[in-house]
Amino acid sequence: MTKSALxxxxxxxxxxxxxxxxxxxxxxxHGLVRRLSIPNIGNIQHLVDHVTLLDGDLIDQSSLNAxxxxxxxxxxxxxxxxxxxxxxxxQPVLTGEITGLGAVRVLxxxxxxxxxxxxxxxxxxxxxxxxDREPQDESTPFHPRSPYGVAKVYAYWACVNYRxxxxxxxxxGILFNHESERRGLEFLTRxxxxxxxxxxxxxxxxxxxxxxxxxxxxxxxxxxxxLMWRILQHKQPDxxxxxxxxxxxxxxxxxxxxRVAGISDWETHVKIDERHFRPSEIYNLRGDARKAKRILGWxxxxxxxxxxxxxxxxxxxxxxxxxxPR
Length: 326
Hints:
two-stranded parallel ribbon; UDP-galactose 4-epimerase, domain 1; 2 domains; 41% helix; alpha/beta; 326 residues; Rossmann fold
């Protein structure tokens, strides 16, 4: 019997890779998308004939109820969020409404209309924030340092509560940074890879960045959506960290991105702008995914330098294509 899956945040990086994976595994796939005046379906343009797109928004309970009723899901992956940390400082209330309370609205829709569905909640390493130990695993205390991180902590504990209070199958994936050529341009790694590609093509001279000393655990998104799927195949609901176990500074990523493009004097192309600094920074996020490896058989394969190469080369090629005469 064909399984049905509902994916919120369907047009994002993770949503697009996850829907591809689910289609390959034979699922009937439904994607929740926000109604916009200009549709934002670039990441899923190649999928629209193979999935069912449903209009909905995490701030609108009725649309979530309707989406759950229509899709009749066996599995729900809640990937939707206001997910840009910088924006969360400017729009903290909106971030709380979507990223925090939005998860509860999804849970309420499932509790009412698909109580037997298995639910994946996209939790985040940003929940750890100001850490007192390294690496971080499922037992590390949360100390979020942004409204986004705070909202994700709220959603995490809401999922635990719905699991314990209502008996729902709800699992959290506490995933560390995972990137790809489909990452939004506002995110650091894509801002760097796209900026380097523009410099490579002579379309720009500099990239404006913030703190180069922050360290992050960066993996490749397609491998992390595989972990999401594995988490919901486990016989019981549980929470898992997904990470590479390696931390690298922003400076290292920038240097590697320029190296891939064959540009050696990268410092001359980077401008530091204090507007890009966070009011409260996180300096050392590095995950310990041994539980996911032991129980789910999952481990990432793409290394840091390979990730930078994938992203920079994709942006260079994309700009090549866009500059060709039509």
